[in-house]
Amino acid sequence: MRVYKVTFYWVLFIVLCVGCRKDAFDNFYNRPENLESPIYTRLEEEGRFSLFRRLIEKASYKETLDQAGYWTIFAPNDEAVNRFLTQEGYGTVEQVPEEVAAQIVRYALVYNAFQTNHIADYQSNLGWVEGLGFRRRTAYYEGFQKQKVRINGVEQELIVTASNRNNVSVTFGTPYYIDGDNNNKYVTYFHQKYASMNNLTAADYSFFHPNVTWADFNFMGAKVLKADIIAENGVIHEVDAVTLPQPSLDRYLAEHDDYSFFRDSILNQFFVTYAPNAAASKTYEYRTGEVAQVYVKVYDPLLTFSLNNENYLKEEDNDGQQDAFTLFIPKNDVLIPWVRTILLEHYKTLNNVPKTVLADFVNTLLWRNAVWPSQFSLKFNVHEEPATFVQQDIVDKKMLSNGFFYGTSKVQESNLFSTVYKHIILDPDYSLMLMLLNKEYKRIITNPNQQFTVFLFSDRLLQQLGYAYNERINEWSWRDRNNNVIGHAITEPRLQRILYTHIVETPNDELANIENSSGYIQTGDKIIPGEFIKWQNGNMYAAGNEFLGQSVHITGSAKFGNNGRIYYVDNLLEFSAETAGQAVNRVANANTQTSRFRDYLVNSTLYRAADLTINGIAAGSSYTILMPNNAAIQQAVDAGVLPSNTAPTDLVDRTKVERFLQHHILTNINVAPDGNQDVISGISLLKDASDQSVIVGIANAVNNLRFTDASGKTVSAVNNTNLYISNRIVLHELNGYLN
């Protein structure tokens, strides 16, 4: 009996202990009494969302929103839902199809909970960035769809899904589709904090939604009436309108035939493919139970971005919160005549236009930024051009799921198709010159703020002169005048140097009358000056042409762009390969007034007779050689600056000669009497007692070039319209000498 009593008391003790522990467990883990209800219940408690709650139920999202989670929902109140029912012709919520209910609910539902203290911030990988957020990823995505598409002229019905990345490079394997990424759509909102920190105003929002008043916090085309309704599993923002999922830029184009020429004749024809994808096909089978081939709609990597990608750049997971894409697409009645007049000037059909040129055109219409209406001049496309529109040019505007869409009444005024560059990019006879330009100097001649004259050399001319380009291996070669074959490593830099000699900055249209006048001018632009060329009554010479005795002639009439003119030529403006010693000898033979300077040089320690070079002058660099004439040399002899013997043996006299010559060679500069006021001094080869380079002053007026030495003595270049030019060297006869 005693054993039973002991057992009873032990059982009672254990029950009491367990009960106490359970009470402690419940007290610790039970839902706190002050915790808000989940979203679905919270909507019920607010009392203004009975119709939206019914849509949630129809969309099968009640359980999701009445349990744990982390959401933001932009909830339309009963008045907003009633207005939607009337507009869409539904008598009651019950008449709304489940599919439509799901669209409304999932597009209003944003991942993660965002109160207004962070709704305008960007959720970066490193933390919050203030004032950069204006979009958020929703629970809605389109997934797989059956679509009729035209491939090689044949219409087919395919199961299609959109690419969810920008196909930047097929070559390096950059994926255009990541399986498991549903390409969720984004919503756009406009908060006061974002607006003020990005210099935007209510006008930027109302341009898209002219019938909606901005209330410091708007969601798509709705006002946020009450923000920050806190729930256990997220945040509710009450809005005054129902929002259906917005299409992507790709789908909007597909649905609007006002842009059918751009869409069908350019975009789909040349830059869209449908790629079968095994991973997408497997996912489709898993979701539907059907076995079928799924195709991914892929945009060509030549384009700035993929118009059907909802993920923005995906360089960071959430970068779609802070930016989006923008399109400026001209309507058919604007684009068709522009294409006929501009793109097809030298081509019969668009099929004949190089794909790279078409890609350049399409990219003039694409921005990898959200371009708000007040920012047309502030945001730039891949060609570094702003949008050349005023708001009156915009005839259609939409805030879409992956960016802004503007339909336009004119075509973007791209520098590619309005400057002198257009005569090269749009003419198949100049494809090789175009290739060279695009590698080095395209940016220069597409600058609408500078005026240029460009001499165009054709593919045929290059071929006649022995140049060839192998597309298969992407290499140049040249068969020179001695029938030697020169490889790519030498040929391409040679052609780039020749090309730059064919580009001349002419702010005052200095070459307008080149066929009936004479003169000289420095090629290139002021930032990177090129070599001098000369002309006389239609005969043009660079240093190489003069050396070879072959002039260049203009053929046909000049053509114009908004930043200058172009001439067609029958030969290349060639550079010279002669050495500095050869150049001095050639000039002295042509102008005997400079022969004594030459004699001192060739007998000096600076001169290397074996290769006809001058110590201190590096091949390929720029120099100006000042050659005092015979009378000036005699003055220097009389003053004891030079010995009378042009080949002295005495060390002191040889040093005098060397220093005299060095003083008259200016480094890293080509100067001529062209009135260039930017050049005010030159550095000579001569060093002073402190081993510092001696500076020579320069005063440059048209036909009046003067040089000043350290003592203030000034001497002039003898006016000679037949400027002496060589291998990046300019030579002048002087009427005095520098001491």
Automatic annotation (TrEMBL):
All residue ranges annotated as the FAS1 domain in the record: 36-243, 581-738
Spans through the membrane: none
Protein name in UniProt: Fasciclin domain-containing protein
